[in-house]
Specification:
By secondary structure, this protein is α+β, with helices and mostly antiparallel strands. The chain has helices spanning 49-53, 58-66, 81-87; strands at 7-13, 18-23, 35-39, 44-45. It has three helices and four strands; from the N terminus they run ββββααα.
Length: 159
């Protein structure tokens, strides 16, 4: 509603419900500000949001307020509360005790333990390594005497 108040509506054909909506404020949605053709009868807007979501975009709301119509008419039935409540109208059957289940004679599927996700510790890398990742192994050198084979803690040259 807030964005729709900043749009300018030019009615082309009220009989066919075709409008041209011009945006006057840039709302930084990733698309350039411009003019959008809106066909209310076909539920079609150039922005694509109206067709993709089946919900009125700001252009539809602006055109409906210009034509003194209710924009709620253009909301798809899926989003209406009556449709949501119809899902819960049906009864769900209870699940019997496992002793009453019929015997199963098909193939048994066993999970692959290698695909099991470890919940503790550092995650395993799934990166596919190439020859670019191979490094020449360098031996660690002592920080005190710069000789390889030992480190600072057990350096034979330290006092």
């Amino acid at each position: 509603m807030h964005k729709a108040n900043s749009h300018q509506v030019i009615a082309f054909d009220r009989l066919n419900q075709t409008f041209r909506v011009m945006e006057t404020v840039n709302h930084n949605e990733g698309r350039p500000m411009g003019r959008f053709l809106l066909k209310l009868g076909e539920s079609c807007c150039d922005c694509g949001e109206f067709q993709a979501l089946h919900l009125p975009c700001s252009h539809v709301i602006a055109a409906c307020s210009h034509a003194a119509q209710a924009y709620q008419v253009h909301i798809h039935d899926v989003y209406k509360a009556a449709s949501v409540f119809c899902v819960y109208n049906n009864t769900f059957p209870g699940i019997q005790d496992q002793s009453y289940w019929p015997q199963y004679y098909g193939r048994r599927l066993c999970p692959d333990p290698a695909m099991k996700r470890c919940k503790r510790g550092r995650p395993k890398s799934t990166r596919i390594r190439t020859e670019m990742d191979d490094e020449i192994e360098t031996l660690n050198k002592c920080a005190l005497c710069r000789v390889s084979g030992h480190d600072r803690r057990n350096c034979p040259n330290s006092n």
